[in-house]
Structure formats: structure tokens, C-alpha cells
Write a structure and sequence with these properties.
Blueprint lengths: L1 H5 L2 H12 L3 E7 L2 E7 L5 E6 L8 E2 L12 H10 L1 H34 L3 H14 L2 H10 L6
Antiparallel strand pairs: 1-2, 2-3, 3-4
The structure holds zinc ion.
The site of zinc ion has 7 residues, from loops.
């Protein structure tokens, strides 16, 4: 667990994907360390020495971590490969977060829908005007073109 706390959230997620996509090609226990070969999306192979007891002593020869005390996604992938139960836990937790986000988005959409339906015409007009004036240019252009408001 301590190793995951040493890495930033994005790295843990990328490492999980790396592990989940079968990028950990081999692993070997050497004392307290694990030597793993982890491949990349562009099929580079990196050698990881993952130390679960002293995570900061872990090494990887990828450009991001080489010669630095950085926990990269390959080290995280090696960790998940050595401790698959941790990967399962992490995967389940991420899934729940996604589900909660989806539910929250659905609820928000319904809320907005109800709110808009109860607005008066004058309120709708001023809200639309404000949105248009503050909208990205692409959207503004689309509105002008779609409603024949262009001068050309
Ligand atoms: Zn690496």
C-alpha cells in the first residue's frame, strides 16, 4: 500500500492500466526486491526493480524514472503484478468512482432539465442571450449560421 502512496494519482491509474493490459512480461523475486520486465505502448521494454518495503528505492530504466527516485507507471504495474489483490481492490474502487460520477451527472442533468422547464420566457431569453455571448466562438458561429443570422 505504501508504494501507491508514493506515486501521484495519474501514475497509479496509468500503472494499473499497464498491469491490466498485461504489460508486465516477467517477474522475479530477488531478496526483498522484485525484478520485472514491463513493456510500453510503443513496445519498449523496461526493467523495473520494485521494492515493496522501501518504495523509494524502486528503480526503472524508463526515461521518466531513470536515475531518479521517481515512482513511474512501470513500477506501479510491477507492484500490482506482485500484489494482484491490491490491483483488484484498486480496480473495484475506480469502478465505483466512475459509477458514482455517472449517477451524479444523470441527477444533475435532470435537475437542469426541470429548472429550464420551469423558467419563464423572459428568463429563457436572457439566459440564452447570456450563454450565446459567453459561448465559445464555434458554438456562437453555429448559432448564427443555423438561424440565418449571418450577413453574407
Ligand atoms: Zn518506468
Amino acid at each position: 500500500m505504501a508504494l501507491l502512496d508514493c506515486a501521484n494519482k495519474t501514475t497509479v491509474w496509468n500503472g494499473f492500466e499497464c498491469y491490466d493490459n498485461g504489460k508486465v512480461l516477467s517477474k522475479m523475486k530477488i531478496g526483498v526486491m522484485y525484478r520485472c520486465v514491463v513493456s510500453d505502448d510503443d513496445s519498449n521494454e523496461y526493467t523495473v526493480e520494485m521494492n515493496p518495503i522501501h518504495p523509494r528505492k524502486s528503480k526503472c530504466n524508463c526515461p521518466r524514472a531513470k536515475g531518479k527516485y521517481v515512482i513511474c507507471k512501470h513500477i506501479v504495474a510491477a507492484y500490482f503484478s506482485v500484489f494482484p489483490m491490491e490491483a483488484k481492490k484498486y480496480g473495484a474502487k475506480s469502478m465505483n468512482c466512475e459509477k458514482i460520477k455517472d449517477i451524479q451527472e444523470d441527477e444533475l442533468y435532470l435537475k437542469i432539465q426541470n429548472y429550464v422547464r420551469e423558467m419563464k420566457k423572459s428568463e429563457l431569453q436572457s439566459a440564452l442571450l447570456q450563454l450565446l455571448m459567453e459561448s465559445p466562438e464555434v458554438q456562437f458561429d453555429r448559432f448564427l449560421t443555423g438561424n440565418g443570422l449571418r450577413f453574407d
